[in-house]
Fold these 3 entries.
Entry 1:
Amino acid sequence: MTPLTRRRLANFKANRRGFWSFWIFLVLFTVSLGAEFIANDKPLLIEYENHYYWPVFQTYPETTFGGEFETETDYRDPYVRDLIAAKGWMVWPPIPYSYRTINYNLPVPAPAPPSADNWLGTDDQGRDVVARLIYGFRISVLFGLVLTVFSSVIGVAAGAVQGYFGGLTDLLFQRFIEIWQGLPTLFLLIILASVVTPTFWWLLGLLLLFSWTSLVHVVRAEFLRARNLDYVRAAKALGAGDVTIMVRHVLPNAMVATLTFMPFILNGSITTLTALDFLGFGLPPGSPSLGELLAQGKANLQAPWLGLTAFFVLAIMLSLLIFIGEAVRDAFDPRKTIAQMSTALPGEAAAATAARKEAAE
Amino acid sequence: MSLMPPNPDLLSVRGLRVDFRSGAGATQAVKGVSFDIQKGETLALVGESGSGKSVTALSILQLLPYPMAHHPAGSIRFRDTELLGAEERTLRQVRGNRIAMIFQEPMTSLNPLHSIERQINETLFLHKRLSAGAARARTLELLRLVGLPDPEKRLTAYPHELSGGQRQRVMIAMALANEPDLLIADEPTTALDVTIQAQILALLKDLQSRFGMALLLITHDLGVVRKMADRVCVMNQGEIVEQAKVDDLFIRPRHAYTKKLLSAEPRGNPLSPPEDAAEVMAADRLKVHFPIKKGLLRRTVGHIKAVDGVDVAVRRGHTVGVVGESGSGKTTLGLALLRLHASEGAIRFDGTDIQGWQPKRLRGLRREMQIVFQDPYGSLSPRLSVGQIIGEGLGIHGIGDAKEREAMVARALEEVGLPPEARNRYPHEFSGGQRQRIAIARALVLKPKFVVLDEPTSALDMSVQAQIVDLLRDIQARHNLAYLFISHDLRVVRALSSHVMVMKDGKVVEQGPTQRIFEEPREEYTRALLAAALNLEAVESPAVRT
């Protein structure tokens, strides 16, 4: 690890709020990745007639457990439960509902208020809100992450080419981006959503068409600046090719800007997906999504647990990401990093600092 | 204030300390500095970068970035006023009024959005409360005083329309607007060409005697000190190590550091390789023209001739020094020879014309022609280790395997006087001189035949300059290298080059053996350049710009 990286990590840790947000977010995200083991309408493990069964991983027909149908077992059926309990036992996840499990045993018409059975109540179709939240959180974050990574890769590449080659390439590309950004994204998405049935990947592709431009300007500016620096010229004099120079010498500089922006792009991506879901142009019907929960909250004002839950989960998730983003920004802040390095290194570096100070004056 | 004893000196600084807080610790920039300035005298603060001289000067007007900077101890008294920790109101009355300051970089110390008239009027309005008409008259008078040509026309000019020297004149006019008692000049000529430097120094001296003001001159250039100062304070690492009259200092330096500083001038003579050595790099009628485009259709209406028909030949083991002022096309010439810049005219490397070769074809030749840049802070990738930086060329040209490359890098580092362990560290851990050594090692490791040295010493302190010059000469002798040495510093050129080319406006004014050029220059421009560079004399000549 280079001293620079170490210094940055220290800076990241020094921002307590961001540091803790990072860990909380990481734990939440890891937990939600294992959503099938936490909220599911299938048991984790069944012992039946001295055989072990793993319903989470494998489907078993009802006949396995002495039932009558050849179809997949409905483990929530009281009849099946009795069958299994007679000759063995089963272990349920802490929340015995999946995101699409409909609870038919509600004492009141759906949406049902929070109870011991449904911790945060059910939505208007009788589905458990906690289960939908866990799955919804996972899909939101995953969607955001994938979109962020893809748009960063495209954005960095486009910005790099523009900035490095400059001139006509830059001019044409810039005009193209300006026109592209002028397109009314939301309307296009709505129109496209009515032509194709949106799936996770369709939506991702559609949003990617417009989201990649966000990083281009920053990266382009970094490349424009760096391409005239002496060390780039020195690399040319050594005989390095354009790609080598871009990747080895200029990109590391642009990465700082990119990494600083990333948490905020992630935030934006999540918000976009939520907004589309809220409007009903997002993920296919039935998918667990925070936006859909919000829409339900709006439609069922008499059931405030829906709206409040969706609001708090979104607010907390976005705040955590913003705090992390702030910490990342601190970590990459060259003024902070370099100021601290100079105090950390005695001798030679002190002279360099003083020189820098003098130069700054 | 009335309780203080009257101050016999104009300015007295006592036990001044400046600390910079950064992160957890603090850096001591100035550690207890004391000096006085009398009315009308010139005191020079001399030292290398990082010695604390600028910080000292800035603390007089309390212009440091407080509260990042703070003064644990000390006192600064201007006449009977204590400036250290004085109220902002008191300071404002002193700043720009009784004590004025001019800065090193005239490019950035003038506001680019304000006309010259507005910039100078500002101080007049602030301190003298003149009417618009009176201020205009005074501004004109000031501009005439500082010798700005056509002052009436220049009133409405913006900084970018003026040359560096003219901008510095405007800065001086601003500083003089309220006839200050003390003028602090922080490296006033460092950013300027030698001929302009001489003019500005002459102007300062003239104005000083006319107004009887005191001058605090901050500089690293002993030549300027000798020319201008009455007394000298030598600063090193935040302390004044010696204080003396200027004549005494140069004749009988007492402190070891002063002696080191005085002996730091680049010295020694260029090597004398055989006259008939083979030509390594040559160019005939080399031209680099930048088109000037105008109008809606961006039609080319003319050309800026950065390099205009230059013939040059560098032989094995020889150094051709290229001297000239900024904008004369020296650096462009160097870049064009290496085919790093588009040009016209024949470029022969080892007898083969490489003009018009495709970049791919040139790549193989790149290892034989190398370049060392001026700014050692900008020429090393900050995110690569020294080993990676030096080894990059080896990788590109596929020389040796990983182990051999490592050994070559270590050897190159040893050759430039750095420990081989340095390869695992990063550029920011090294001082300017050490970084320049790394840049030289990067060029050397490929065993080139021809190296362009683009002002390799100008960003360095005097004592480091001498070391780098010695190093370059050693390496040249060992490997029989051909150098194209670009510099505006004639002293360095004399120490290294066997042959000198004087450039002006893209053309070669005069060229010949170093000794001949220095001892009997034929052209008027060369004479003016030499007088300005070596004796800091301003020459009134049509060949010299203002």
Entry 2:
Amino acid sequence: MNKSRVTLWAACVFIGLWLIAPTLIVIPMSFNEQRSLAFPPKGFSLRWFENFFSDAQWLGGFLNSVQIALLTAVLATVLGTLAAYGLFKVKGIRESIGRNFLIIPMIIPSVIFGVGLYSLFLRLGLVGTLPGFLIAHTALAVPYVVVTVGSTLAAYNVSLERAAWVCGANKFRAFIGVTVPMLMPGILSGAFFAFITSFDEVVVSMFISSPYLQTLPVTMFAGMQREVDPTIAAAATLIMITTTAAAIGGILSQHLKRKRT
Amino acid sequence: MSTQVIGAALSLRDIGKQFGTVTAAADVNLDVEPGEFISLLGPSGSGKTTTLNMIAGFEEPSGGRIMINEKDITDIPIHRRNIGMVFQGYALFPHMTVEKNVEYPLKQHGFDKPERKRATDEALAKVSLEKYGARMPAQLSGGQQQRVALARAIAYKPPLLLMDEPLSALDKALREGLQTEIRRIHRDLGTTVVYVTHDQDEAMALSDRIVVFNEGRIQQIGTPNELYKNPSNEFVSQFLGESIHLDGLIEEQGSGHEFVRDDFRLPTEVDHRGPAQLMIRPESVELISASSAEQSGPTVAAEIIDKVYVGHSVKYMVSCRGGGGVVRSRQTDVDDFTIGQEVLLTWEAARSRILPLATSAKNGEES
């Protein structure tokens, strides 16, 4: 190995660590024996995980998060797929206006989105409710589905759909029977990203949550301001495991298609 | 036992398609007989595919009507037009087995399960792929995939079968094999076929009649023989088969007309004055050495610019003042000419054809 290759590898390792070290540090801290968030941790124990699963506040937040994220993933995937397909069918200025419009929730600062939503939800009585969370999180997650399904559609051979029509399938049956299976890699990966978007969303969720309905990141944030509780590290570790698993699922599903064709 | 289909009669009445300012097809009028095999032939962008897409329903005509068996289908959605179609890139459903692909149209048309099974097996047998039902399309070669596509298109025995350059992705040997298969299936089934191709040999080999397209318009409709022997204009004569063409003028001569060049003049029936072109097919032209004295018909001095051996014959590319083209002579002929040699072209006047050249420029339309 020559010198420039060594330098290249060293640079890669450094950048890699820089990106993930803050995330990885949380794992050893969640096994800390002492009641402190100081690094490095001292000793080993599972007491913070035990605490997490026995405390109604923590466990409830976790279960809320899972429920909201799963439902958001379903809603955002259905809506985002239909939106991406619609954009694929129109061309020119209408397509670019539509696409940019759908990406808006991805771009505007969460704080602004959260404040706006809060005042609206107050009027409609949606603050601290499951429908409220679903509406908010779906809006935030749809852009990811539009993007992943859109990129699968860009490689979609439209004569497959035409072939289905000619075979006697109406537009709906051709879409369900031929187009959707072809787009499955994009749809699945969009679903995973929609799940992640909802699962670790904190800013908007803080605005629309109530003491009765909180998601896990909101519980963590509130806990952090009250006291130094290493249970937060255990919660962070659990969030990390869940989102990493979902992200791996998202990446794998994008590769589904290569095997098939 | 396979039953014959009653082929559909297809009529296109003044069909046109405008994409913004671009005319993709205009004034397309065509009557296809039940059971006929008709090819739409032309270079890319000539309007043949646009016309096929309008018959299928993928494109809506900007004007005109499409009739199947006297019934206006212009506004009927694709899935209720009862057509079969074979696509250029096969368009097999990659997530379904060969069997499921072929069964798909039967399912959509509401056939019951035993009937679907029977028709699927029959269609696969027709293309000799009965052992491949359980495979996925990606596990088959290009030629096999196109045969599955053919089986899918004929499975429910549509009265009208559309084919969009189905063989263009295959190599020459496979193409010829499949041509034979398509001809046989058409004969067996009796369905009406509309076949799009840019390959004149393919159109000649398969079709009862050929429709020649150029720049969005039909140039001529006729049997392969009619088109080859009696092209109605310069484009058709040059697009279909090789030829020698010579530029000249048609002038009035007494009560009739004459095609005039400074090396010969020929009486003609063509009632036209102005620039014209004389066309002779390669097999009707004879090459003789410039010194030869035996001249029965018209002669034109020419130079051999290239020479290609093609098995049984030799192909000479010749050029002369105001013209040129291809001449074929049999390998057995004693005369053998070399590149650069001065020769004379001679032919029987009755075997040549005189075509008036369009004097008006194109109408600024692109296709």
Entry 3:
Amino acid sequence: MESTLQSLWLGFSVALQPGMLWYAFVGCLVGTLVGVLPGIGPLSGISILLPITFGMNATQAVIMLAGIYYGSQYGGSTTAILMRIPGEASSVMTCIDGGAMAKKGRAGAALCIAAVGSFIAGTFGLVLLTVLAPPLASLALSFGPPEYTALLVLGLIFLAYMSSTSLMRTLLMACLGLMLGMIGIDNMTGHFRYSFDLPELGDGIGIVPVAVGLFGLGEILSTPSKNVTAEVISPKLRELLPNREEWRQSVMPIARGSVLGFIIGIIPGSAHIISSFLSYALEKKVSRRPEEFGKGAVAGVAGPESANNAASTGAFVPMLALGIPTGPITAVLIGALMVHGVAAGPQLISEHPQVFWGFVASMYVGNLMLLLLNLPLVGLFVTVLRIPYAYLYPLIIMFCIIGVYEVSHSIVDVWIMLIMGILGYGLRKFGFDPAPLVLGLVIAPIFEQSLRQSLIMSNGDYLIFLQRPIALGLVAVSVVLLAMSAISFVLHRKDWRAKLAEAEAGEPSA
Amino acid sequence: MDRRSFLIGASAAALAAKPVLAQDAFPSRPVTIVNAFPPGGVNDIVTRPLATLLEPILKQPVVVETKAGAAGQVGAQFVASAKPDGYTILSHNTGISGYAEVDKLFGRPAKTTRADFIPLARLVADPMLLLVNDQQPWKTLKEFIDHAKAHKDTLVFSSGGLYGASHLPLAYLEKVTGPLGLRHLPTNGGGPAITAILGNNAQVTTQSVSATLPHVKSGKLRPLATFGATRSKVLPDVPTLKELGHNVEYYLWVGMFAPKGTPVPIVTILRAAIDKAAHSDQFTTTLTNAGQELAYLDGPDFQKFWDIDGAKTDDAVKLIGRQG
């Protein structure tokens, strides 16, 4: 412990040099911008700026590039809350209740809670990273395909909790999402599935075009058919801040989201979107008023936003301690270190302590910077809502198209987004919630691959899911959840979803 | 600047630049290098510094555009169908050789073949290693092969993807040793394949020297043999397959390509520019830092190498056959 503090002291002595502070600031600023702009994700942001770092030293480079990464997790919530457009894939969950809060005039509160939650989660993740990186990293390695499969089974069960509409509608959307997720090359055999000879569909349908289309474009298309009053939400400064009740409601979700997000983040190959979606489902499950979710529940913003930030910090654990990329972004960061002659791997901490500890310390500073950068911007961002729809909406459509194209320079993606926009309009008209569709799309390919990988490992024996402790634990949780539902079904006790469906049947959704 | 002085200036510049071509001197606008692989991979590490160094030589901006997807096929097809004017060139790797043969295997019309590209230069050729993790007992290739053959269908081999650059070397090896009976665990790229073997979800893999060097140094992965023709400078104790009596070579190489039909004078200019950039101190230093070495082959030599390498790839794809 003492040596950790000493090392951290060394880290701060590196990170607090004016030059380092400057690069951390640039990274955080670019990250915030990248996060705010829909579609332009941290991956393209980092790879575009990579050549600039060739003239810097390794510490400066990694501090700046990592700032873009965790900074984008802060910014991603902004458009999600204000316009229901996920700035990043991991902000999809924030669209639901963040967007609903904005409609109620609590956009400022939602933005503040997202920023503070991100700060707390990011800092919490860092403390764990500082103290526990090496042992945690070996835990991450024991998370193989069987554990992943079990986690996603849990995710599939949670899907049922995802929506504010009836269970039948939720499952219908989830199935559609799972089917869309089947498109692409079958990794195990090399067959193209439902790709219509388009190589662009070889890797499946991207999450970003679907999410931006269903949420952002769908929302915009359905606006003209609604009775839009000129009543623009223009809160006073005092009202921008969350009130006491909202703070109270967000404390526990932030705490739970931080822990959950960090754990998911350290698993190699995991997507941040899974951490935010599990956090959302968890909050809804433990909430005493689950019916509020989808209608502006504070916990629905606080939990997922904290979770995706904690996950982005957690992702550094295997990268720094083992040199294993958890995803494409950490892979680029490892590449950036390599270009500077620093091999990310098990010896990073001993061979380049100033890089490792300087980097860790800079993230403490960077998280603080991001909070200071984002809170004053809340007022500015909320004024965006005062722009008349006639000007705002064409601009948003333009940003959607540019952003989606930018992800992989693909016109096919733009078409997918436009088609999804029309689909999103239709779904909205018929009272379907698009969130389970997006999550089905996320889960399907990973679930299929990890299931089949597990069976290759076990030579077709399904017992592999019960022979490995972590997988067994996750399967057990799934079984308990299913048993609980079955019991309440047998006892004919109606839960809130059944009541909701009844209410819907009585009065068709407005 | 008025039109007249512009014309004078332009003709002066044209005279100064020597009469390379009767028409507009190439390049007169920015050149795009399409990288067919996502950021973080070896193509990205090689292409971005090269692009930066090409700018002062070509006196035009050189833009790297990532068009990843379908194991590099999306980018390859994009460049194959681009206008062959030298303004769109491709950064690709070993994977480019096998697409046509895989398509043939599935009875699909081939989207791109090797004949669709003019090789400009090979930049690096990183030999593959046959690696096992530290929980396995074998110290030599022979021990491993004997064990695998005696216990068929028990060991798991992880690769970055079916028919990919970390799957084909196994087929090359099995061609000379006979079937080893490994179960194949395909993942989404080199990173996940290495994670799988580090976590003992797989026991064997073939990966490049640069991608695995930190894990080899820390003792987590043990290389049993290199697919290179000579021993690696950074791993001098690892024998080559040839020394061990198996006549196999396999490299993860990165090269630059122009689409078929690009005029010869433009190809010549690009080759000369890449040659100059690749041999600069800055480029070689960047490569060394990244654990790579310059393995430069100019266009015609690269074509000769590629003809042989590609034919071997076709054989390996046929040997793997359809998996389902």
